């Protein structure tokens, strides 16, 4: 590898413009460097050199592995731009014949996201994006196709394949080549199960849409597309997709549907409907097998879209969450935890009046949660939505907003919101902090600093905004979701190492820490302390199901609090520890539910039913 300054500012500016949208993030005025390998030229700002070096060391291996799986090895040199404009995990490929490019964002993903845990993030990102290049740069074997590609440098697959094919195939191989990825994660199975059971799988036309504004609708090209391709391969054989790519790039020009019919015998829409029918049966079969043991609490608030994790006030009287509704900016809402008695009274009066006017009418069945009174609401301000709310002892709320610097790069910073006065006060500037959790007295918070692809735990003084490290910055081991113990002396958090997330408890201000013992194969996310400080309530992914478990810190086996068909995440225990609020995965998004603690004798069931035949309604082994 050779390190030097980049030679083409035009290339750099074009790639960064595509990466950052309308912002001027990571402009050519920054101190840029270049690393070169045999087939890649990696351009990066100086502060991202450590992660860019890691990327450069793995690119050649990823190229060889993905080309072997796809069946085509792209020639020439690929330009790779490393940046971090939005403080978010992402990447994309620009598959122009003769001048391909990759744009990779350095921030690691958070735990509990749709990106599964059982692989190194850098490997997942490189494999997914390099599959795009090996797949979409395959040239046409048609004389006319070769001629037209000189005018418009796009290959026949990139030109004709729908989005569900390109993203689904990259996701399929992301899992197959890394042993992790979305195909092996519990989240893909949970989303597909929830949509299929409700009859809400997208139609064929919507499967590849990037403008689908239903919950995770644009992500169905990855989740549903990869599952559909797996289903097609299972029936037509392991070389079926390779045959499809060869037919699409053949000397004889074909539409995607024509090429597809020549391999699978029918058009893609017809077979997708069959796939959707079989997936729906598998999801309903999971429901049938689990029906007698389901324990998913009671509805507390019926919401749609990507609702954020709930936060409970110290007195237990208020609950806050970020509400994300399609086509609307996110907003932070605070509700009373008591039912809205006035709304209930008015509802009962309306029903009574209707029955008085028409005694033969029938009163409606009230099956949803009781109405809740909204106390306060913080909208998205200046394009920066509120994130990760946590109550302080005085009733104010600590939260995160991603604010642009002078170059347009977004930096997550801490703010304090006073719901009663409507006042928002900024606590840090350019600190790159996420997911803070305050101490019981409100003097400090523990947060994750994610900067230049390194993560670490830091202590933030909530009076001055001063920051002191709790752990050293680490490129290899990602830390996430810290939670301060009820006595303020320890912090529980997640750490990604050895291809998976580990649940860790660490003494604050010291180096003593312990990994929490979990059942074999369990993947943890969303830890929360129980009020007594002796256990953690967390989401564990076991056998493809996401459920809440109370995990004692003395080595006793975990106690299962929920048994859902679709999934339970983000627990928020009540003050007395006898119940927990949580988010339940549904067909239209996440809603808030409440579950009571199980009887003391409850334990994880031994001998879970064998559901391997129901993939992709459950993850493959």
Please give a structural write-up.
This protein is an alpha+beta fold and 621 residues long. It has 13 helices and 30 strands. Strand 14 (410-418) and strand 15 (423-426) form a beta hairpin. Helix 3 packs across helix 6 and helix 6 crosses helix 9 (220-236). The two termini are 38 Å apart.
Give the structure's gist in a few sentences.
The protein is of the alpha+beta class and 621 residues long. The chain is 28% helix and 29% strand. Helix 2 (49-70) packs across helix 3 (121-136), helix 6 (163-178) crosses helix 9 (220-236) and helix 10 packs antiparallel against helix 11 (256-264).
Topology:
Elements: E1 2-4, H1 9-20, E2 32-36, E3 40-45, H2 49-70, E4 78-83, E5 91-94, E6 101-105, H3 121-136, H4 143-151, H5 156-160, H6 163-178, H7 186-197, H8 204-207, H9 220-236, H10 240-248, H11 256-264, H12 268-290, E7 298-301, E8 311-312, E9 318-323, E10 331-339, H13 341-357, E11 372-379, E12 387-391, E13 397-404, E14 410-418, E15 423-426, E16 433-438, E17 444-451, E18 454-461, E19 467-469, E20 478-484, E21 490-497, E22 500-507, E23 513-515, E24 523-529, E25 535-542, E26 545-552, E27 559-560, E28 568-573, E29 579-586, E30 589-596
Parallel strand pairs: 3-4, 4-6
Antiparallel strand pairs: 1-2, 2-3, 5-6, 7-30, 8-9, 9-10, 10-11, 12-13, 13-14, 14-15, 16-17, 17-18, 18-19, 20-21, 21-22, 22-23, 24-25, 25-26, 26-27, 28-29, 29-30
């Amino acid at each position: 590898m050779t390190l030097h300054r980049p030679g083409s500012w035009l290339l750099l500016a074009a790639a960064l413009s595509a990466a950052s949208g309308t912002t001027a993030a990571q402009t050519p005025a920054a101190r840029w460097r270049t690393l070169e390998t045999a087939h890649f030229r990696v351009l990066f700002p100086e502060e991202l050199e450590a992660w860019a070096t890691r990327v450069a060391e793995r690119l050649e291996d990823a190229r060889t592995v993905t080309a072997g799986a796809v069946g085509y090895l792209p020639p020439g040199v690929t330009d790779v731009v490393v940046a971090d404009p939005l403080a978010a995990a992402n990447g994309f490929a620009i598959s122009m014949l003769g001048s391909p490019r990759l744009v990779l964002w350095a921030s690691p993903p958070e735990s509990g996201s749709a990106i599964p845990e059982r692989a190194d993030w850098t490997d997942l990102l490189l494999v997914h994006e390099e599959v795009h290049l090996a797949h979409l740069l395959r040239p046409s074997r048609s004389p006319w196709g070769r001629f037209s590609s000189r005018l418009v440098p796009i290959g026949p697959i990139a030109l004709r394949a729908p989005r569900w094919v390109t993203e689904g195939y990259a996701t399929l191989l992301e899992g197959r080549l890394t042993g992790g990825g979305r195909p092996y994660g519990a989240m893909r199975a949970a989303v597909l199960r929830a949509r299929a059971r409700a009859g809400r799988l997208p139609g064929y036309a919507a499967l590849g849409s990037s403008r689908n504004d239903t919950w995770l609708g644009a992500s169905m090209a990855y989740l549903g597309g990869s599952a559909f391709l797996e289903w097609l391969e299972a029936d037509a054989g392991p070389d079926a997709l390779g045959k499809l790519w060869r037919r699409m790039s053949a000397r004889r020009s074909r539409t995607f549907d024509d090429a597809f019919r020549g391999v699978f015998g029918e058009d893609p829409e017809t077979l997708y409907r069959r796939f959707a029918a079989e997936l729906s049966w598998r999801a309903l079969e999971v429901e049938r097998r689990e029906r007698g043991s389901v324990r998913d609490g009671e509805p507390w608030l019926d919401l749609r879209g990507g609702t954020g994790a709930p936060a409970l006030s110290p007195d237990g009287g208020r609950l806050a969450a970020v509400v994300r509704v399609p086509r609307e900016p996110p907003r932070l809402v605070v509700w009373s935890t008591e039912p809205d008695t006035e709304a209930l009274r008015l509802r009962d009066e309306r029903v009574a009046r209707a029955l008085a006017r028409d005694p033969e009418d029938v009163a409606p069945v009230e099956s949803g949660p009781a109405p809740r009174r909204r106390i306060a609401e913080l909208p998205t301000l200046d394009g920066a939505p509120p994130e990760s709310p946590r109550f302080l002892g005085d009733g104010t709320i600590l939260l995160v907003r991603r604010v642009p610097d002078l170059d347009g790069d977004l930096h997550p910073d801490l703010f304090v919101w006073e719901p009663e006065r409507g006042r928002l006060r900024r606590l840090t500037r350019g600190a790159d902090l996420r997911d803070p959790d305050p101490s019981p007295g409100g003097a400090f918070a523990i947060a994750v600093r994610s900067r230049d692809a390194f993560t670490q735990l830091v202590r933030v003084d909530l009076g001055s905004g001063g920051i002191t490290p709790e752990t050293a910055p680490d490129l290899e081991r990602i830390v996430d979701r810290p939670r301060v113990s009820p006595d303020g002396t320890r912090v529980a958090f997640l750490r990604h190492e050895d291809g998976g997330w580990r649940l860790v408890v660490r003494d604050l201000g010291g180096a003593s820490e312990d990994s929490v013992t979990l059942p074999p194969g369990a993947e943890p996310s969303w830890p929360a302390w129980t009020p007594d400080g002796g256990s953690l309530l967390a989401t564990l992914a076991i056998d493809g199901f996401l459920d809440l478990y109370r995990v004692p810190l003395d080595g006793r086996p975990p106690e299962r609090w929920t048994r859902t068909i679709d999934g339970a995440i983000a627990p928020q225990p009540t003050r007395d520890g006898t119940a927990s609020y949580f988010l339940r995965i549904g067909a239209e998004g996440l809603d808030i539910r409440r579950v009571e603690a199980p009887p003391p004798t409850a334990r994880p069931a031994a001998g879970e039913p064998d559901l391997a035949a129901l993939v992709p309604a459950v993850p493959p082994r």
